[in-house]
Amino acid sequence: MSDDEIILSELSDKELVQQMHDDLYDGLKEEIEEATRILLDRGWAPYDILTQALVEGMRIVGIDFRDGILFVPEVLLSANAMKAGMTILRPLLASTGAPKQGKMVIGTVKGDIHDIGKNLVGMMMEGAGFDVIDLGINNPVENYLEAIEREKPDILGMSALLTTTMPYMKVVIDTLKEKGIREDYIVLVGGAPLNEEFGKAVGADAYCRDAAVAVETAKDFIRRKHNSLAAR
Question: Given CA atoms 153, 155, 156, 157 in this order, what sign does their dihedral have?
């Protein structure tokens, strides 16, 4: 393998960022950690490393995932490599008050223990600069309500892989309506058996086919939210 010949510390900044895109694509965790540290040592701002190297790299992964060139196992490796870089950057980002896209609470609904799709969405959202609070699997409505109260997110994401657990999404959304807080949150739903009609039927803002679509949809809704606030 010719990769062995590449010495990351000898690359220029531009080449190194390009190499990070390639290494993310290939899911090379240790290389991403090393490159992240090199850029920090060279005086790069954590936010610039996040956006130019990690987020941009994951954007490329997301496009190829959407187009069927990459598949879930490969994207999970990429997301894992990105997380390694994020682990180094997160405390530094927090202390520099870097701009955030927004905040998302995500979880698989009650009765459902599937989490690969949800994890992928969470990782891709993190990679796009969102704060993600993952509630895990099998969440009753109370878990969502507590998390919303505690975290004050912009987005609530719900996932289901079983047709029997899909209707529970409506239970959660109806509860938000009863409490008069439905309009305060962007509600995104996803999972293999769902479709656009189902998303509309349960009252979600959007159904997201996969993690790449979820990221684009979330960004779009956040942009619209900011625009409507600015117009007031």
Answer: negative
